[in-house]
Amino acid sequence: MKPDLDVLSQPTPVPFERAARLVKTPTFRQKTVPHGWNLLQFRPVRAFVTWSGFPAVLQLLVLAVFVALAVIGWGHYTPAGVNAKLYAKTNLVNLAIWGLWWPAIIWMTVLLGRAWCIVCPLELVSSQSEKLGRKLGLPQAPLAGWLAKGSLVVLLFAGLQMLVPGVQIHRVPHYTSLFLWTSLALAFGVGLFLKDRAFCRGFCPVALLLSAYGRGGMLAVRPSGQSCCNPNSKAPNARACPSLLNPARLNTNKDCLVCGDCVKADPAGEMQLLLRPPFSQTDAREPLASWPLTLFVMIVSGFVTYELCGVWKAADPVFAFVPEQVIKALHAGAAGGWIKGLWTIVAVPLLLWLVLGVLTLLLGGAKSLSEAWRRLALPMAVVVAAGHAAKGLEKFTSWAGFLPFAWAEPTGVQTALQMNAKAMPQPAAWFTLPTLSVLAMVLIGAAVLLALREARLADTEKARTRYLPIFLLGAFYFFLVFGWGGWLK
Ligand code: SF4
Ligand code: SF4
User: Ligand 1 pocket test: which of 206, 211, 253, 258 has the largest number of ligand atoms within 8 Å of its C-beta?
Assistant: First the structure.
């Protein structure tokens, strides 16, 4: 009998006797026993993860940094006569949040899955307020289904992206401070009135980004190969997980916050914290992404296009041509930023995905445009994440040199004025643009190969119909980062 290789990647468990029979075949073993090192084998790691202060102490430290930045940034705007782009780098708040933290989050998620969630201060605030609400006897409702699917998260993420061109949130410390305070207040309020980690599951503006980009991450909580199909397993069940997941059947990174609660509730030692190769073959894959996730990937593909064009001087005016004409025609003035935002996260994604979706339809990969988009979303997320990571690398390495100056003068006003007047030299970027261009091309090339593999693993039958669209988006991003090197004069 041919073994059913995908049996454990399905949400429905197979009967234990059948699974035990199948485990005997070498191919099945290779696919179902999670590959990678179980970090919990190392005593210091197990002691740390099972320590009662994990991860709260780490979250508390990061919370202190968040609050300090929010306080420092409050009331500070770009000073008159100072270049806003330069001020963004000299002010500690802008630099730390948008120049260092945000690119680091993208890279961390691509490489290590939802590792950021381990230290996230918002989870600490929402979990503590949830406890407080319980103690105060407040009525705490479960999260509504539409919220749990990420419908609000995608809107919040789109709103955040609109604030970049709209009010230059990434360049104005006061707006960044407002963003931090609002996030903390929302986490607190949601925790008080909704239960089961509702903020992380239905309100966190980056939850879909972490879920989409972190699927192939190398850090993962998984049950051991013996426990995942065994009805007699002592691996913790859904009661042990504050996110309402079933740790004993965990087979994807998409919702797990790596909080370690299931490891603590696992005296039999059946839960593992794996460090494994990226995009493990043992993970479950959905052939059809949810609508919120699909919309997220579409929106972010437009934003990444804008970001990649921004580094290449020749591409920037091409990207901005249409919104500039609209702004002129409407005499939009200060509202022009919002028009650019709509162009970036609505019009460009629709144009891009219309081409990619129609191509998938013509190749017979879907019965409707919406189905084509949903089938493309998850493999495409790999390519989009690589583009995002490439831009993140460019930003991190060109902004990091400003850190000593921002540390010495957190408001950054004098530094910006002196640099503006050329009385003080600006720190050089760590890498030249040609070097970054080569690194970005390698990254996007590798992402295209991984995305093709993801398409095949998610749905072998229809995979071929998605190869060309994936390749085209990869080629488009590849072309843009090729332009960074200045080789197309
Ligand atoms: S889902 Fe969002 S709020 Fe929750 S831990 Fe992760 S980043 Fe933090
Ligand atoms: S599965 Fe385990 S590590 Fe993941 S969120 Fe649930 S309790 Fe935390």
Answer: 206
Is 117 in contact with 209 (CB distance < 8 Å)? no
Q: Where are the domains of the chain?
A: 294-484
∠ CA 242-247-250, rounded to 5°: 120
3-state secondary structure of 15: coil
DSSP string, 32-82: HSPPSEEGGGSHHHHHHHHSTTTTHHHHHHHHHHHHHHHHHHTT--PPTTS
Q: What pLDDT, on a 0 to 100 scale, did the predictor assign at position 231?
A: 62
CA of residue 93 to ligand 2 center, whole Å: 32
CB 140 within 8 A of CB 130: yes
Testing ligand 1's pocket by substitution, the residue of 101, 112, 119, 120 carrying the most ligand atoms inside 8 A of its CB is: 120
Q: For the chain, percent helix, then strand, then coil, each to nearest 5? A: 65, 5, 30
- List residues near ligand 2 (CB under 6 A): 221, 240-241, 243, 245, 247, 250, 256-262
pTM greater than 0.70 (yes/no): yes
Tell me the per-residue pLDDT of 4-60, one tens digit each, with 9 for 90 and over: 333 333 343 434 334 333 333 333 344 444 578 999 999 999 999 999 999 999 999
CA–CA distance, 360 with 368 (Å, rounded to integer): 9
The per-residue pLDDT for range 391-438, each reduced to its tens digit, is: 999 999 999 999 999 999 999 999 999 998 889 999 999 999 999 999
**Protein residue with its CA nearest to atom 6 in ligand 1:** 117
Cβ atoms within 10 Å, residue 196: 17
Q: How far is the CA of 211 from the centre of ligand 2 (A)?
A: 14
> Between 34 and 267, where is the model more confident?
267
Question: In Å, how far are 103, 179, 308, 399, 431 from 395, measured between CA atoms?
Answer: 7, 20, 11, 6, 10
Q: What pLDDT score was predicted for residue 15?
A: 41
How far apart (Å, rounded) are the C-alpha atoms in residues 440 and 482?
Answer: 8
CA atoms within 13 A on the CB side of 470: 30
Contact call for residues 76 and 411 (beta carbons, < 8 A): yes
What is the spatial distance between Cα 21 and Cα 3, in angstroms, rounded to a whole number? 9
Judge if the beta carbon of residue 203 lies within 6 A of ligand 1.
no
Distance from C-alpha of 203 to C-alpha of 317, rounded to nearest angstrom = 35
What pLDDT does 232 receive? 64
**Residue 489 has what pLDDT?**
67
What is the tens place of the pLDDT at every residue in 122-160?
999 999 999 999 999 999 999 999 999 999 999 999 999
- Helix (H) or strand (E) run with residue 274 in it: strand 271-275
Phi and psi based region of residue 422 (left: phi greater than 0; alpha: psi -120 to 50; beta: remaining) = left
